[in-house]
Amino acid sequence: MRRLLVLLGLVVGLFCAELENTLSYEKARQAVLNAEERLMTGGRISLNSQESKVDDLFMQYKLGELAQGFRNAEQNTAGMHFFKAKPLIDRSAIFKFLQQMPKGAVLHLHNTAAVSSKWVVQTMSYMPGMLRCTDVKGRSRLTFRRAPKEHSCTSQYILVADERRNSIDPALYDENLEKLFNLYTPVPELEYPTITAVWDRFQGMFDTLTEAIYYLPAFRAYHWQLLEELYNDNIMYAELRISLRELYDASGRTFPREQAVREMQLINDKFVRLHPNFVGIKVIYAVWRGSDVEKMRENVEEFKILQKAFPEFVIGFDLVGQEDKGKPLYEQLSVLKDLPPNSRLFLHAGETNWYSASTDINLLDALLLNATRIGHGFALVKHPILMNAIKTRQIAVELNPISNQVLHLVWDMRNHPGAQYMALDIPVVICNDDPGFWNAKALSYDFYYAIMSMAPNNAGIRVLKSLVFNSIRYSAMTAREQQRAFQLLENSWTRFIEKVLQGKVF
């Protein structure tokens, strides 16, 4: 990176010194453009002849869509809010290409917001025994058991099946039920005027849904569907952030939180047996960042137990929740330093618009704590020393484009700091965070914004290939697992390129 920046300086100096010489002007101009292209993500990847043909085809469609958006702001998906752009994206040739493209892994995904809300309504809410109640804040809670201690409901528990049957229009009932755990609105600027408004609604949706997911039959069906949605979007591996609760069944029995991890491992093993090209999932134990020190110590002790019981499956630790309102990492140092020496940290840090506040300084503490990856890193662009350290140490930033937009950090995705990270070849991976809560099933929608908004207009297959292979390179798989994953990915990538050239994609 330093060498290329020096080259850029020399070229610009040459350009200024020989401004009057037309030939030198053109050479200097092209040299700067070439140097920037080599510096950015994917800039040093060489495409084979087949990939180059696909790149030519891809760029025809990409430049066509961008030109259409340039002429008509109402069709400029690259600069539109996802809720407004989604109908256009669904019809996009680029999006259809991305859906069929192997995407490697997703490395930042919260399990209880990972499955499409439509499936939750159409399948999970039709399971016998689902109940709904209302808490003191007027928020609906869904469960399969009466009076769980976490609910604090002030209303009676009503069977969802009875409510649906007694409604004037069951289809309308389901539509309204889905709104309880889906942020979609055609007017996000009106319904969520501030970051506080959208975060309150967002975090409330976890309260609405999570208890129901931990009903044992629902838990199994939900996580199987999670893997199906990833697999159908051509994802081969995932690392899931999981905040554990106790499982329960229809008889009222409860199971220790460790059982939830065991169930997920069994689901994963079965899915991998049935889908040989799917490498599997691993778990990052995620706890609420606002916990007091005593509770955090309990969480760390539980993590130690889980990691010992599932050493290849439970791979790391994270703190979750709104950073602006949660405790900064610095306040949790004494607890985090009690983690076993071999523990890996995958820390949310810098998910904020503030500058030199406790939230963006989490980035510094994440680096000092030797984090394996940085979750979001939205504010990293304001900290050049930290950005250089991340590049030097090859710590990947988990970019979550749609999440950052929906949760009020950026409106026009072309202004996302991920564009600068990609321009400087900061290690990045494209992730989806909580897609079930905003109609963005799996990962292709986030890849759409990565290539159409955050990447340069002239960026195509080289950038996409780099982002895809980064997802395996910066995963927490073992060396042997990575070797196999890269081999599978190479094979699926080659087949995809052939498929495009056979006219089966565009």
Q: What is the radius of gyration?
A: 24 Å
Structural class by secondary-structure content: alpha/beta
The appropriate CATH architecture of the domain at 103-118 and 205-450 is Alpha-Beta Barrel
Distance between the termini: 36 Å
What's the CATH first level of the domain at 103-118 and 205-450?
Alpha Beta
Written account of the structure:
The longest helix is centred in the first third of the chain and has 23 residues. The protein has 21 helices and 13 strands. The two termini are 36 Å apart. By secondary structure, the protein is α/β, with parallel strands linked by helices. Helix 1 runs antiparallel to helix 2, helix 3 crosses helix 21 and helix 5 crosses helix 19. Among the domains are: 262 residues, Metal-dependent hydrolases (TIM Barrel, Alpha-Beta Barrel); 68 residues, no CATH class. The protein has a four-stranded parallel beta sheet. It has a four-stranded parallel beta sheet with strand order 10-11-12-13. The chain is globular and about 80 Å long.
Q: What labels would you give this structure?
A:
506 residues; alpha/beta; TIM Barrel; four-stranded parallel beta sheet; 13 strands
